Structures are given as C-alpha cells and as structure tokens.
Amino acid sequence: QVQLVESGGGSVQAGGSLRLSCAASGFTFPTYSMAWFRQAPGKEREGVASIYIGGVGTYYSDSVKGRFTISHDSAKNTLYLQMDSLKPEDTAMYYCAADEGSYTQPGIQRLGVAASRDYFWNWGQGTQVTVSS
Length: 133
Prior knowledge:
This protein is mostly beta strands and 133 residues long. It is built from one helix and eleven strands, in the order βββββββββαββ. The strands form two sheets. Strands 2, 4, 5, 6, 9, 10 and 11 form a seven-stranded mixed sheet that branches. The chain has a four-stranded antiparallel sheet with strand order 1-3-8-7, with no helix packed on it.
C-alpha cells in the first residue's frame, strides 16, 4: 500500500522560497508517476508538476513553469517541490500524489499535468502554503 507524507509548508512573503517534501513508501513496481497538486479555497485541485520515477518525463503547469522545480531522491524515496519567486496566488494546500498505473503518463501528456487529477489514486494529507503580499 502506497503511503505519502508531506512536509515543508509554511508562510512566506511574496518573492520568497519554500521546499516541500513527500516521503513515499509501499510501491510495487519500479516505475511510477508522482506529482504535486494544490487546492485553494473554493477552487478545484490542480496539478502543478509531475515526474516519472524510473523513466523520463517531467511536466509543469503554465502557472508555475520557470518558478517551481520537481525532483526525486531515489535513495531517500522522497519527492521534492522547490518553489521560488512565490506569489500570493500560489497560496493553497499542496498535496503529493502517486500512481503506478500505465495510463498515468499518457494521460498527463494528453491533458497536461494541471488536469491530471483523476489519474492519481494515492494522496498525502496535504501541507499548507501561504504567500503574503
């Protein structure tokens, strides 16, 4: 059973940086997809970045491209999201997600990471990021 535990959220001023971490465990297959999503109050959950572990494929939503960087440390089995040049509109609950299905990567390529929520079945509990102006 896949388990995901996020950490690293907090409050920061606009222009600042934060790094989120997601400790992952329980994967069955050597390749799988992982991603970061966010959900602001009153809005739908949207993907911001994804990465294909054991393969090739990194994707970002247009809203964070050039400011956020997703990475993975295989030795620690931990997913990261480095967030730079933060804006007030980045304020949201951030969730780590993972899926071992073979349709996830084609789905992300077809729909874009922002709309890929339905391809992910495993979710962390979330960590709050608040950016003040």
